[in-house]
UniProtKB/TrEMBL annotation:
Gene3D superfamilies: Cytochrome c-like domain. It is found in: Periplasm. Keywords: Electron transport, Heme, Iron, Metal-binding, Periplasm, Signal, Transport. This is C-type cytochrome. It comes from the Bacteria. Residues 1-20 form the signal peptide. Its main location: periplasm. InterPro entries: Cyt_c-like_dom (IPR009056), Cyt_c-like_dom_sf (IPR036909), Cytochrome_c4-like (IPR024167), Cytochrome_c_Oxidase_Subunit (IPR050597).
Amino acid sequence: MRKLLASLAITMGAVGAAHADLQADADAAAGREKAQSCAACHGQEGISPSGSFPNLAGQQASYLAKQIMDIRDGNRQVAQMAGQVDDFSDQDAWDVAAYFADQDASLGQADPDEELVARGRELYRAGDVSKGIPACAACHTPTGNGIGSAGYPALSGQHTDYTVATLQAFAAGERANDPANIMRDIAAKMSDADMQAVANYVIGLH
């Protein structure tokens, strides 16, 4: 656990330094124009009408820009995004990310099942030492806003189905663009029930 937390701290510093200059030049107004093609799946203002696609509104710009560039460059495989960002420059990616980051995040409604909420809260706030799972809040903050300087995403209000699918992809190694294997290591230690509990907790987190 200590080794993993140390890796998190090192990664935060390195990623933050790399992104600072590009993020400072991001143009949200230009991003709005470039983001028109994103609306069909992610909503006009970044709130997706389908749980299969992530909400982008309020997302950390540093995280979102990285995902756009990783998809463009083939470092992250997303079948639904095939060809969508092939012509994006790095500046386009940052502009679109800045636009969505400026939008108000979605606030969802968690399933009120007491056991499900309790397990989600436990994992998010404290982790599970017996499984070697660190607290989600360490990287994503207690309110789920993420840490922009480290490129850690906001989770607050994210669709449950999308969060579960993402954790499953990390656990299976199907998604591998997480710095230092952080999410692959964590997700591999989570049961399906753990994933569902965390996903249910974050949809109502703010």
